[in-house]
User: Fold this.
Amino acid sequence: MTAVAGTSDAPLLRAARGERVDRLPVWFMRQAGRSLPEYRALRVGVPMLDACMRPDLVIEITLQPVRRHGVDAAILFSDIVLPLKALGAELDIVPGVGPVIAHPIRDLAGVQALPEFDPGALSFVTEAVSGLVAELGETPLIGFAGAPYTLASYLIEGGPSKEHADTKALMRGAPDVWDALLSRLAEISGQFLRLQVEAGASAVQLFDSWAGGLAADDYRRHVLPHSAAVFGMVADLEVPRIHFGVATGEILTDMSTAGVEVMGVDWRVPLDEAARRIQAGQAVQGNLDPTLVFAPWDVIEAKTRDVVRRGGSATGHIVNLGHGVLPDTDPEVLTRIVDLVHSLDVPD
Assistant:
């Protein structure tokens, strides 16, 4: 399977494949969400995961930033723990906290209690993606999933953690449990991405939010094979695959070997340096600091131009933030950044 008919020549997909583009594509991680007043109005009284499981809300929320900002891609409104919840895992997203797990996994019995992937339990995702593709026309839809390591960290810690001490203890002290857990999560994430592409998504992104807290050797030994397995499960679908993590400069080279076309780069590593660290022929995505939007416009403009210039060092460049849109971001600033990027000459 290739990109949805009508989107194959979209600037984002051309840049992801390393092809010449007439204008640089731009979208923003977390563009559909808390920074938009129309999103906040729609979410009143609706818990996060409930919103993610209602196709009508998913479609509307996903489309909101495309209409407002004129970005070059939509990303499915969802959450990285959604497939686990839909498959029956006991978890919820607590406002102000994040995903909270009822029964943290610490042993093989806990792994075996995790549900198997069942596409029927995620039929609402298929419905939402199909509806979005019909609405978006030539604008690509990006599907996404959480990487096995990040999902495992929530399941083991019982919720968000800064140190991930229990996660690393299990990784190093019980390798059989660790491999069983990440293998199960890789299957779920890979099948979740596949479901989205088969319903019409034109690209996919795997978020490994917490991988930057690992030493390179631990990442290579205990995490990379499972992330590679996720990407391998959609390799035959011939859509661009994007790999992104936060604070991953020290493991960027390793991450780039997982079998992807695009490496997402956070704001800590300049894109010209990132292009030297990743595999030949890979495109980059990023990497404006999400806090830049609070600076004066002349500062924003100068930094955006600098990011575009540095991104020209890579085979292709998809302009984005180096992480997600912050809740207090003025949406008008994002629109101005899109307009600016679209007005710039594509670096040779």
